[in-house]
Write a structure and sequence with these properties.
globular; 30% helix; 8-stranded mixed β-sheet; Glucose Oxidase, domain 1; 324 residues; 6-stranded mixed β-sheet; Rossmann fold; alpha/beta; 10 helices
């Protein structure tokens, strides 16, 4: 009779490491605009493109950006078409950046249709988006080792209507060394303290939905976790945070930065959930840092070293979001 094998010792956690930063943009750069998720209103797209042109960029709209998939009003065209647009944009050597037009839902449906070896061979460039684009941020970190930008999208209301949102993104694109200290007038301490780590995260619902998928992480040791969401009831926020806790994903975090929780119910109720679920981790937590689905939104790089000061309400990047 074969004796039972002894249990394998648990693998020691591997702290997150800084990711490769793409180069900053310069006037004259061509940038691709894609829609990997939800449908894009044409008038908002045109308004966003006009801003990019005013900045001296040359935006190129992917062929299927304004598509609609019949019977699926929440998708910007067929999965294969959205994947093809993204693939071609990223692999085009003339494009310095791939900018998402909006979020919504759809990235997870098309992620496995991408040729990740071809994306890797194309080399680093800027990827911008948030919300549903969190799934791409995670995939790019895990599969390609590339830092990305969690920030407003080109057809988003905040980008079109809010000048400080545009100014922060523009500075991040062209002069990232000028926007290394991130914070907002509303930032407050939820759990005091200071921590150093690698920025990671994004939309809570997408992080929870990614657990167990090819692009879902199993650990975030040494990470400064960004969390935000929109349109989620407090009990759903509780459920998703509990899922992250029970999966072990939050073990070993260095700190947590919380963004906006637009349309998630009275914020006092949301805060109590956040305090209850995250306060016991023993790490600094700052709330209302100013990124996410709000009417005003900061651009935050993912995959870079930073210092979170929950007492001061700041996240200070140790390197600029984009390289030279």
């Amino acid at each position: 009779m074969t004796p039972p094998r002894p249990p394998r010792p648990p693998r020691p956690p591997r702290p997150l490491e800084p990711l490769v930063r793409p180069r900053r943009l310069v006037p004259g750069d061509r940038v691709a605009v894609v829609a990997p998720s939800g449908p894009v209103p044409a008038e908002r797209l045109e308004a966003g493109l006009a801003v990019l042109r005013d900045w001296g960029l040359d935006p190129v709209v992917a062929p299927h950006v304004l598509d609609r998939r019949p019977g699926f009003p929440y998708l910007a065209g067929e999965d294969a078409a959205r994947a093809e647009d993204f693939q071609q944009a990223w692999c085009d050597p003339d494009m310095a950046a791939v900018l998402c037009a909006r979020g919504g839902y759809g990235v997870q449906r098309m992620a496995d249709l991408l040729d990740w070896e071809a994306l890797r061979a194309a080399g680093p460039k800027v990827l911008l988006g948030f919300s549903d684009i969190t799934a791409l941020h995670e995939a790019f970190a895990l599969r390609l080792g590339l830092a990305t930008l969690h920030g407003t999208m080109i057809a988003a209301q905040a980008f079109i209507k809010d000048e400080p949102t545009r100014d922060h993104l523009r500075a991040t694109f062209f002069a990232p060394e000028t926007v290394r200290v991130l914070g907002s007038a509303d930032a407050r301490t939820l759990v005091p303290g200071t921590a150093r780590g690698i920025t990671v995260g994004g939309c809570l619902s997408l992080l929870a939905a990614g657990i167990g998928t090819p692009d879902g992480r199993s650990e975030l040791t040494g990470g400064i976790l960004l969390l935000e969401d929109i349109g989620e009831e407090p009990y759903r926020i509780d459920r998703m945070l509990t899922q992250l806790l029970r999966s072990g994903l939050l073990d070993g975090l260095a700190g947590i930065a919380l963004g906006s929780w637009q349309d998630c119910g009275p914020y006092e109720r949301v805060r109590e959930v956040l305090r209850d679920r995250l306060g016991g981790l023993g790490v600094p937590v700052v709330e209302e840092l100013g990124f996410g689905h709000g009417d005003r939104s900061l651009t935050v790089p993912l995959g870079v070293p930073a210092v979170l000061d929950a007492d001061a309400g700041t996240l200070t990047l140790e390197v600029p979001a984009l390289d030279r």
